[in-house]
Amino acid sequence: MTTLENIFNLIKETKFNDSQYEKEVKLTKSSIYNWKKNKAKPSYQDIKKIAIYHSITTDYLLGLSDDPQQKNTNNEVNYLTNSEKQLLDAFKQLDSITQNNLVEQAEFYVSKIDKKKNYTNLV
Predict the structure, then answer these.
(1) What fold does the segment set 3-61 form as a domain?
(2) Model-level pTM?
(3) Residue 77: which region, alpha, beta or left (left: phi > 0; alpha: psi -120 to 50)?
(4) Rg (Cα) of the chain, in Å, rounded?
């Protein structure tokens, strides 16, 4: 199947109309209309957003794999735990300044944990 056929099949599965799907996946308005009319093709960012939304690989969307959940050959994990998904969803709802502050705080806490582990190993 082609990339567009894969995308259109996924849209049908969601039961959203085109406008609802664009909002849900955070695509630009009229993206799907333009794809259907061959006025545009999905950008890399569009493909990435769709893959993330459906928890599938971009290879599957691009027609390079028949397995939507295929693992990378270098054994990287292509999924997130439920806790990680919840954290990421909450993080995406924050403005960029708050996101940056949160990242700094997380890095601070991780560094404290690492220092504590190193100190414990020395004792």
Answers:
(1) 434 Repressor (Amino-terminal Domain) (1.10.260)
(2) 0.56
(3) beta
(4) 19
